[in-house]
Amino acid sequence: MWWADPALASPPLLDLLDETERARHARFRLPADRDRYAVGRALARLLCARAAGCDPREVVFRLRCGHCDRPEPHGKPHPAGPAEGWELSVTHSGRKVGVALSRGLPVGLDVEQIADRDLDGLVRYALTERERAELDALAPAERAAGFFTYWARKEALLKATGQGLSGGLTSVEVSGPHTDAALLTWSGPAAPDHARLFDLDAGDGYRAALAVLAAPSVTVAVHDASPLLEAAHHGFAPQPGSPPAVP
Ligand SMILES: CC(C)(COP(=O)(O)OP(=O)(O)OC[C@H]1O[C@@H](n2cnc3c(N)ncnc32)[C@H](O)[C@@H]1OP(=O)(O)O)[C@@H](O)C(=O)NCCC(=O)NCCS
Ligand SMILES: [Zn+2]
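^ thats the input. predicted complex w/ zinc ion below
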């Protein structure tokens, strides 16, 4: 998986996005949301292209929801075209963008900036009774970070299957903040046969986790995406016929 800084958003990176992505990019009202989105999708394309040995603009993302059959495209992006067979997960929060890539094994990545706003409501929405009791036993100063440890672990799992939050955060029960990341129980028909869960270090003020739908023995390699993104700032001429990038 790769970490990136949304400050690396630039017009050349926007040249990597397809038309639908550029339209979505232009609809974000907040520059911070726009930059996180651009860096996430551009990095996802660059990594898929490097893995598949093709031009980043040849990579196609098909959106598939693991939860419902609504006809309009939505949900988890799946690489198609030359990058078919690779599995991907994108996440962003605050000043962090993350992309996980795997050959064939579904992955789910989540990063969360720690905040203590509306924490009690989020706790009721997201945690099982057992997780809540464990959180309540933490010192008050540990409560917000503890909560986002749970959230990132649970959402990483739900993003791996493509259910996302619609799968229900309480359908998944995970280990607590003072224990290594582990899936304890998963209820419902969409529960996968195997799942591996890892905490990632996203820096102070963040919690992050990665889930891989696989039997044991998965190795996770963590990289800084800055060199790849900085190289892309110089490297791509717009394709003939593509609309100009939105500054
Ligand atoms: C999508 C979702 C998992 C995002 O969570 P989040 O913490 O707000 O945001 P993150 O930054 O961690 O993840 C966002 C990325 O997850 C990916 N994603 C979208 N839907 C996904 C899904 N169902 N499963 C896995 N990944 C998904 C996308 O790449 C998205 O980023 P991008 O569009 O900028 O590339 C969550 O908001 C969700 O499940 N929403 C769907 C709820 C809904 O609308 N349900 C009704 C239809 S089923
Ligand atoms: Zn859906």
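The chain has two domains: 1-105+220-238, 109-217.
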